Amino acid sequence: MTQWFDFNLNLPITDPTWIFFLVLIIILFAPIILGRLHIPHIIGMILAGVVIGEHGFNILERDSSFELFGKVGLYYIMFLAGLEMDMEDFKKNRTKAFVFGILTFLIPMILGVWSSMELLGFGFTTAVLLASMYSSHTLIAYPIISRYGLSRLRSVNITIGGTAVTVTLALIILAVIGGMYKGTSGGLFWLLLVAKVAILGFLIIFFFPRIGRWFFRKYDDNVMQFIFVLAMVFLGGGLMEFVGMEGILGAFLAGLVLNRLIPHVSPLMNRLEFVGNALFIPYFLIGVGMMIDVRSLFTGFGALKVAIVMTVVATLSKWLAAWITQKIYKMKANERSMIFGLSNAQAAATLAAVLIGHNIIMENGERLLNDDVLNGTVVMILFTCIISSIVTERSARRFALHQEMQDMQENKGVRKEQILIPVANPETLEELINLALVIKDNKQKDGIIALNVINDNNESSNKEVQGKRNLEKAAMIAAAADVEIERVSRYDLNIASGIIHTIKEHDVSDVVIGLHRKANIVDSFFGSLTENLLKGTHREVMIAKFLMPVNTLRRIIIAVPPKAEYETGFVKWVEHFCRMSSLLSCRVHFHANQQTLNRLQVVVKKISNSTLTEFSILEEWDDLLLLTGQVNFDHLLVVISARRGSISYDTSFEKLPTQLGKYFSNNSLIVLYPEQFGEPQEIISFADPRGYNESQHYDKMGKWFYKWLKKN
């Protein structure tokens, strides 16, 4: 009986089950406990690592699992930083990022060399390596930015770009010093290092996006896509280590080049962030804490002095770099705080440098970086991570409050966006929801309605079961992107009537439907459902056909008819495609007459100045054959049409179905009907000027007569 209570506790715990359990408990309760104390979660992970590590209560040892998951977490931080970066904003601020990168490298180098030689009495080589540790930094506070949704801020992009610059330079110094003691630092060493890094960078930038686009088009399984992305991250990191640099640069580059293939609001992006923030990144932070020996500070004055000097110099130099960048570009104080907070933490490259330097034995038998520097480094890591987390948290909170107030002012009196998606066809369901996700306002966590309409006939029970399955599938797709979807199921006389009634009941602003598939020769291009829907509502309607996943599109070609700028919903659909362009990092190419193009340029600049756009004149709207040379297989053609009787309606729209079916059958396509003022009338009298826009015929006749006179 006593065997039931025979429990021997041996520390450190080595059983994998209990190790993983304790780590999960820390990941679970550290945010809960420290959240009540208003302390950033990241600090809790590091402090927990200090407590359970070999220098604390020795509950766990830093075994191979912490090394493995820690490296994955470190790569994940750099990968997400590249993946979530706004590439257009980064291109716009690349000069600022480069300047900050040089400043945040040179200032710590200068102060570091001086303090190491004058205050700590180290030699020149040791001082240079120590200073390079101050120059590099790790975006350890980046999860805070992700949590607040501030990854597209100018200050964040400048810091991330500067991180790539300073980490690269710091790692080059580490490689050179390491090569000096291996006897490989001659001219050939430099030449080979630069050549290998340049060739590898080109391979990653050129081949990774093409491989990714091919894979996403061919395979749509969620698990396969997730594993593929992880494989690309570690391939980039492994190749970078192979040429003698740190793998974090390869992970960062992989994030940059896959940026446009993984929209910020998408199921795949949500899965990548979820797994990283739930497991890999906390594992890395706990592992960093387990390396810190707090007791070493009290065993002798030497270690304490080194730790104080290192922490003060590292923090002061990073603050000076942020302050000078702020003054040069006349930025706000909170932007400086954000730059300083993100760039102050020392972890990844710093750990690599101190461990390599500690293992190098000089000619006199001493280590290049002694035990005092090793202990001082881990203490510096602890304090810089704490400072970084607190400053970033406060700065992010101020940005978020300011953004929230700004959004409240902008959205005052604006109707809430509600996008309706009928779910009759399960084959096109995922494409339509992905389209809705990239055009919706990403500040709204809801705003999508999935509708299933059931005809009241003998087969209604079977259709009801199928409809419920479609609604559940729609909810799962949206939930994977962290978006709530409202499910509506209703009986009605026909599907068009059900959609129209739902539009009125739920105050729907936009409708997204799939393009009708012709059942026979006499069937129309759009089908009776679409035609009845357009007659029954004046809200914006998108009729979509996708031949490839939305995230693999490379360009959006938009054909805009004359006078489209006078329609009520003109600004709305322009904003939708600007959002789509921003999330997919692709270019929008507008084709219209000069007057409409002028208005488009003004609206696009007002909505989003960073949207990649092109503008071309298209005078002969009635012949879309002119666009066939512009639209490739991986482009999306958008045709802005109009309902009969509207301002921009043209008689050439009657030929639109024939032209689309003839010239663009092998292209992804959206036909958009903009929102109009008011609602459709049940009875249209002959005196109603909205009934038929006969002036269009007279305009065409006048234009033809004018051209004939000019020709003769």
Main sheet record = 10 strands, mixed
Distance linking N and C termini: 114 Å
The dominant shape is elongated
Task: Estimate the strand proportion.
Answer: 5-15%
Name of the CATH first level of the largest domain: Mainly Alpha
Radius of gyration: 30 Å
Secondary-structure arrangement, i.e. CATH architecture of the largest domain: Up-down Bundle
How many structural domains?
Answer: 3
Mean pLDDT: 79
Poorly predicted runs are: 519-523, 681-698
Widest sheet, order of strands: 3-2-1-4-5-10-9-6-7-8
Question: Would you give an account of this structure?
Answer:
This protein has 712 residues and is of the alpha/beta class. The chain has three domains: 64-278 and 296-373, Na+/H+ antiporter like fold (Up-down Bundle); 416-518 and 526-537, Rossmann fold; 546-678, 3-Layer(aba) Sandwich (Rossmann fold). Helices cover 59% and strands 8% of the residues. It has helices at residues 16-36, 41-52, 64-83, 87-92, 94-118, 124-135, 142-148, 154-180, 187-218, 222-242, 247-257, 267-290, 301-329, 333-344, 348-359, 371-410, 426-439, 460-480, 495-505, 527-536, 570-584, 594-607, 656-663, 695-711; strands spanning 419-422, 448-455, 485-492, 510-514, 540-545, 555-559, 587-592, 613-617, 635-640, 668-673. Strands 3-2-1-4-5-10-9-6-7-8 form a ten-stranded mixed β-sheet, with helices on both faces. Strand 4, helix 20 (527-536) and strand 5 form a beta-alpha-beta unit. Helix 5 runs antiparallel to helix 13 and helix 21 (570-584) crosses helix 22. The longest helix is centred in the middle third of the chain and has 40 residues, at 371-410. The chain starts with 15 loop residues before the first helix and ends with a helix. 46% of the residues are buried. Mean pLDDT is 79; it is low at 519-523 and 681-698.
